[in-house]
Specification:
It is a single chain. The chain is mainly α. Among the domains are: about 1-70, Serine Threonine Protein Phosphatase 5, Tetratricopeptide repeat, CATH 1.25.40; about 270-330, Serine Threonine Protein Phosphatase 5, Tetratricopeptide repeat, CATH 1.25.40; about 330-430, Serine Threonine Protein Phosphatase 5, Tetratricopeptide repeat (Alpha Horseshoe); about 675-760, Tetratricopeptide repeat domain (Serine Threonine Protein Phosphatase 5, Tetratricopeptide repeat), CATH 1.25.40. About 80% of the residues lie in helices and about 0% in strands. The chain contains 45 helices and no strands. The radius of gyration is 34 Å and the shape is elongated.
Length: about 750
């Protein structure tokens, strides 16, 4: 009997071992375990089990789909997209996966790809109301509200008891300004399902928009009571409190969420995310350091903490964490974007371009990647490409506030008030508690001379962030524009008191003193601030500029510029000004040496090559100038200044005139209002014997000088005279030669001018 029992036991063990080695059994166990976790709302645990099933059988389509659903619940959009794509590759007839894919693509505004899934679903599942709701959402996002309403009505007709359809209908009715009907449909959804959080939160948002705030709060609190483990109603309550400027109450809610939902990633991350959203990086960093210790395997915590490390400038730690994530999740888009950010901040924008383009190859609708690619292009001096990427980011994700910030700064540089107002308003809409949207809108009001509005926005920025300098700087700007120089000086000083390293603050104080004709006091203030903050390159630059421009103290200014460059070898403003000062002293060779040395520290700065080329032109060293312009164009192929200057240099060096013509035409496209470009193009036509076309270009150059109110250029008059002489118009030729000589008696070709004047007969 003992032997029989032993044999039976061994048989059971043998069967169990056999089952554990059977891949079909193992993957099914993982799959079923994942399903149980999913039903309990334990999405990270479910994801692990579905991933285990896939590890056993990479072609297990159902596991890929369930893993995708986990990723959607965890808001890991890129990973969800990848899993849905794989699930559909393995199970093309999985129409639930098609529907989830369509909704995901709509949410990231990839409408073209979403439409392919929606069209398939409409054909293959014409009786599924959820398909019509997805189609309605797609049309609504594209602006076709009328057709979206019709499709939603069709979904309701198919399934009158489906509460989700009434929520979609209510949202669409709000867009068509039918508030009473919308409120009725929200209530209809809640009658069908009183515990439907989405319906209740939709109604709460409806009330909030109409300032029916107590009713909005009541709906949210009911949603919290009905669905206590769902963090979204609590997030809605936080948004409501923030909109009412009740930040203390918002923070209390968030701290309670963290204790009430200790196992829900979306819940315990909310406090740190809130600090991040209001720009309080210090508290966000502290919170996420704690979260990373408590949840070291949560991929979203790791990625968010990584992002904060980058923003804090702790790049070595960030890089280590990024590579750790990529080791676990090779090709993860979010981690690659972190890598691109780190490369940007480490001064390797070219590498960042490669990294971020890799992301966009797989996911062209990734707004974050477009944004950081814009940052990389901007660092490379490719401003048009940067602006294009930022516009793409804002179009794909209208709520991406950093894209609007970047576009607002471009609008400031381009003096584009319409774009400035739009992007500043978007920042205020998205982050009403952040001061910078108000200061940017204040700049728009200054441009429009609406000084009361400008001051109101600046003071709002101060109310929101009294410890920051940003609002005081803008008060200074408002006062300065109204010529209230004493008030401006006081405001700029308040900014400097809050940020002793603020170059805008010190520059504002100095400009206000200069406007009051207190130049010596401005110099004293600058030197005193430098004593307080001796490592600030910008401060030395400001001092050098004042000494050079207003005191003409060349030795002191030169010393300040050199100190500025020693402190920051990438301070291009100080580098350029030092070179100009040396040229003003008659030391062109020293200026060339300065720029060549700086090129060693800044080898990817096309403008620096252009400036060096212009100095070689002064020496009539055409070959060296040509090399500089060619290097500039290698870095920035469409650079109009480099194209124009290289074209002119090729003419002087006797090189291929057709290449020069092509370069000049490129320059004309980039700088259509430049008299120098028109002059270069005209001189090329002159060299090619097209004298009438040359005259047209020279006359256009003179017209642009008048239009731009710039100083006349003896070169243009000299070239025009040559063209008149070739077309047998001696009187006009003599007149233009005299004007050239009058403008610049020390003209480089003065001997030629005198000879030409002697030869030309009226």
């Amino acid at each position: 009997m003992k032997t029989n029992r032993l044999l039976a036991l061994l048989l059971v063990i043998s069967v169990c071992l056999s089952c554990s080695r059977d891949p079909q059994v193992r993957k099914q166990k993982y799959f079923e375990s994942g399903g149980r976790y999913f039903e309990q709302g334990k999405y990270p645990e479910a994801a692990i089990q579905f991933a285990n099933a896939i590890q056993v059988d990479e072609k297990f389509g159902s596991a890929h789909y369930q893993l995708a659903k986990c990723r959607l619940k965890l808001e890991e959009w890129n990973a969800a997209y990848s899993e849905l794509a794989r699930a559909l590759e393995l199970q093309p007839d999985n129409y639930d996966a098609h529907l989830d894919m369509a909704n995901l693509l709509i949410s990231v505004r990839d409408f073209k790809q979403a439409k392919t899934h929606v069209d398939l679903l409409l054909e293959m599942r014409p009786n599924n109301p959820s398909v019509y709701l997805s189609a309605a959402n797609l049309l609504a996002q594209q602006g076709d509200i009328s057709e979206a309403l019709q499709l939603t009505q069709k979904a309701i007709a198919m399934a009158p008891q489906k509460w989700e359809s009434y929520v979609v209908m209510a949202v669409l009715q709000q867009k068509t300004n039918q508030p009473d009907v919308a409120e009725g449909d929200f209530n209809k959804a809640l009658q069908l399902n009183p515990k439907a959080s989405n319906a209740r939160l939709g109604l709460a948002e409806f009330f909030r928009a109409r300032r029916r705030l107590p009713e909005a709060e009541q709906q949210i609190r009911t949603a919290i009571d009905n669905d206590s483990q769902n963090p979204e109603p609590r997030a809605a309550l936080v948004r409501l409190y923030v909109s009412e400027d009740k930040r203390d109450l918002a923070e209390q809610v968030l701290k309670k969420v963290k204790t009430d939902l200790p196992l829900d990633s979306s819940g315990y991350r909310m406090l740190g995310d809130y600090y991040f959203s209001i720009g309080d990086l210090e508290r966000a960093g502290t919170e996420y350091r704690s979260l990373y210790r408590e949840h070291p395997k949560d991929p979203r915590v790791k990625l968010n903490y990584d992002q904060l490390l980058i923003l804090e400038g702790r790049l070595a730690e960030a890089n280590k964490l990024t590579e750790e994530i990529l080791k676990d999740y090779p090709g993860d888009d979010d981690a690659l974007i972190c890598r691109g950010q780190i490369q940007n901040r480490q001064g390797h924008p070219g590498d960042a371009v490669d990294t971020l383009q890799r992301v966009l190859t797989d996911d062209p609708g990734n707004a974050i990647a477009h944004y950081h690619l814009g940052v990389a292009y901007n660092a490379l001096g490719k401003a048009p490409l940067a602006e294009s990427e930022w516009q793409s980011a804002a179009r794909i994700s209208p709520d991406l506030v950093e894209a609007h910030r970047a576009l607002a700064q471009i609008a400031v540089r381009k003096a584009d008030p319409a774009a400035l107002f739009q992007n500043a308003s978007d920042i205020i809409r998205l982050q009403p508690q952040s001061p910078d949207g108000y200061t940017l809108r204040s700049a728009f009001y200054i441009y429009r001379q609406r000084y009361a509005d400008a001051e109101a926005d600046a003071r709002r920025a101060i109310d929101l962030a009294p410890r920051l300098s940003i609002g005081y700087l803008q008060i200074g700007n408002v006062s300065f524009e109204q010529r209230k120089f004493v008030d401006a000086q006081q405001a700029y000083q308040q900014a400097l008191d809050r940020d002793p390293n603020s170059s805008d603050g010190l520059g504002g104080v100095m400009n206000a003193l200069i406007a009051q004709e207190q130049i010596d006091q401005a110099i004293t203030v600058a030197r005193a601030q430098i004593q307080k903050e001796p490592d600030n390159s910008a401060f030395e630059d400001l001092l050098g500029t004042l000494l050079f421009d207003l005191r003409h103290d060349m030795p002191a200014a030169e010393a300040a510029f050199k100190k500025s460059i020693d402190l920051d070898k990438k301070n291009s403003d100080a580098i350029v000004k030092l070179g100009r000062l040396q040229v003003a002293k008659g030391s062109v060779d020293n200026a060339i040496e300065t720029y060549q040395k700086s090129l060693g520290d800044n080898p990817k700065q096309p403008d620096l090559y252009v400036l060096t080329g212009e100095l070689y032109e002064k020496k009539q060293d055409w070959q060296s100038a040509k090399q500089m312009y060619q290097k500039a164009l290698e870095l920035s192929p469409k650079n109009p200044v480099a194209s124009n200057n290289l074209a002119y240099t090729l003419l002087q060096a006797g090189d291929n005139i057709d290449i020069a013509l092509s370069l000049a035409q490129t320059a004309r496209q980039g700088m259509p209002n430049s008299p120098n470009v028109a002059d270069t193009l005209g001189y090329i036509y002159y060299q090619k014997g097209a004298f009438k076309s040359a005259i047209d270009q020279f006359q256009e150059a003179l017209r642009l000088i008048d239009k731009n109110k710039t100083l006349p250029d003896a070169n243009i008059y000299y070239h025009l005279a040559l063209a008149y002489q070739k077309t047998n118009q001696p009187s006009l030729a003599r007149h233009e030669l005299q004007r050239a000589f009058k403008i610049n008696p020390n003209y480089n070709d003065a001997a030629k001018l005198k000879k030409q004047l002697a030869q030309v007969r009226s």
